Amino acid sequence: MNSQLLNSATWQHGEVRLVCVERWHETHDVISYRFQAEQPVKFQFKPGQFITLLLDINGERVGRSYTISSSPSRPYSIVLTIKTISDGLVSNYLADHLQVGHRILATGPDGVFNLVDIETEKYLFLSAGSGITPMYSMCRWLEDTQKGSDIAFLHSAKSPRDLIFHADLKQFDNVNEHFNLAYSLEEGELQDGTAVVEGRFSVEWLANQVADYQSRTIFVCGPAPYMQAVKSALIEAGFDMERYYQESFGGEPTSTVNQAAEQEAKPFMLHISDKKVDLSAEQSLLEGIEKLGLPIIAACRAGVCGACKCKVVKGEVESSSQMALTPEEIEQGFVLACSTQLRSDALVEL
Ligand code: FES
Question: Whole-prediction pTM value?
């Protein structure tokens, strides 16, 4: 078995059947799942990338992307670390059903928010909540492969009981003199000497903690309001945004109706076979397809993974991402539904 493992093929891209070999709680509402491939492989991915799980839930195919929290420097398994969201269909399904020994289909890896496509010498990781997962993969990778890397890591959480990966990060902080770990917590304290401030992210905190932050490359991941606040604060502080990168997907879609969007005028009609729904200029094609109850896999919901590809047969549309499409597909009228809005009535094929 050992030599078989050592000589196993490398999985780099595409679909793979995973077997859950371990699961454990990181915090009260965050669970890590470790997977190996059904046929032994070495997983090759870039630290920071995500994988898309393809599940059948209540008879429907559902896809959802999650960052790999483990590092490719430990290639025989991958770990996904997932926060259970109260109305999150997939995270709840996994928490309730995915046990050791269960098999699951996945595809990937994908994502440009990673340490191979973005190279630098001086890292500044800013994260909040479960946005810590790509940062942890990156830190583990750097610690395993480039000892002594210059890393500043500022993480924001609600309280000490919400801190994910604290023991490992503390260990990096202890053994690497160039690793600078600090937290902002809305409540509670840590008694182990880690730098902690009360409250949320602020540039003042950043400047106090990381005096040379202006010369670093910044990686940001967390809930959308957090990323927005960090971005605005850095722009205001005159940071060179050429060295600013943020992960562009995260939370699960919820069933909450967006009131503002509901009240907007909806000038365009989306037709798909014999069904139709009206959409505003702000709503995505994906929202329309989901409203119609039609089957579509929307994994990243950010124009990255390509799962929501569909074809515009008639009508005008505007797309903010074509990242996952080939020039031929674009020529043929394919779009990414999550990143496309109507500019006229349209006929679409799934
Ligand atoms: S859901 Fe990933 S590209 Fe649209």
Answer: 0.80
